[in-house]
Design a protein that fits this description.
6-stranded mixed β-sheet; metal ion binding; Metallo-B-lactamas; alpha/beta; about 25% strand; about 25% helix; MBL_Glyoxalase_II; Metallo-beta-lactamase, Chain A; globular
Length: about 220
């Protein structure tokens, strides 16, 4: 699966919007910058679906433009005029070449979901990375109306519970008695803000949880 950040060159505030290509072309969040449609077209002629992690403005400002251009399905947890598929905790969706579990992760937003597969996490704003507040393992802000640090902490714990761990033998190997093969676990994290992370994603999420549990302001002016 190839994943491209189609808002990477933005000069104005936006989320990271990710285009995943493979068996199924999917855009995770639409971003808030003009030109996102043109950037998508540099990689593909069509997309099958847009999946929203949540509906804050920096994630959906260009949603209509994308849907108008590509006539794609819209997957979202909360109601939206153009939603075609309602997401719920425990659902499974295909992104690129992989099956992703939908994990309901509110706290930063009431409608927030994260998407996790055997190898990859689209974390939206529940866990972010190198976002200017912390350089390894950060989390979405919770100081605005309708947000909750306590609920965010619970969501990060839920996410950790739902993430596959590395080092597990494959069922096929165990059944055949062959040498046990080990899974590396989740190694790719595509967050709504900050940098993409490659490596031990569980460690990044655990670090974000530890910081969130301290209940200290994310930013000095909170």
């Amino acid at each position: 699966m190839d994943v491209y950040n189609v808002t990477a060159d933005a000069e104005t505030f936006t989320c990271n919007a990710y285009l995943a290509l493979g068996e199924r072309a999917v855009l995770v969040d639409a971003g808030a910058v003009d030109g996102v449609v043109d950037e998508i077209r540099t990689h593909t002629r069509d997309i099958d679906a847009v999946i929203l992690t949540h509906q804050h403005g920096d994630h959906v400002a260009q949603l209509d433009a994308v849907l108008d251009e590509f006539d794609a399905e819209l997957y979202a947890y909360a109601p939206h005029d153009r939603r075609t598929v309602e997401l719920d905790d425990g659902d499974q969706v295909m992104i690129g070449d992989e099956a992703f579990d939908v994990v309901y992760t509110p706290g930063h937003a009431d409608d927030h979901v994260s998407l996790v597969s055997e190898t990859t996490l689209f974390s939206g704003d529940v866990v972010v990375h190198d976002d200017g507040a912390f350089d390894y393992g950060s989390f979405g802000r919770t100081d605005m109306a309708g947000q909750s640090r306590d609920r965010l902490i619970e969501s990060i714990r839920d996410l950790l519970d739902r993430m596959p761990e590395g080092g597990r033998a494959s069922d096929a190997s165990a059944a055949s008695g062959a040498e046990r093969s080990e899974s590396a676990g989740v190694e790719h994290m595509y967050a709504g803000h900050g940098d993409t992370f490659e490596g031990d994603v569980r460690d990044v999420v655990e670090t974000a949880l530890e910081r969130a549990e301290k209940r200290e302001p994310k930013y000095p002016d909170e």
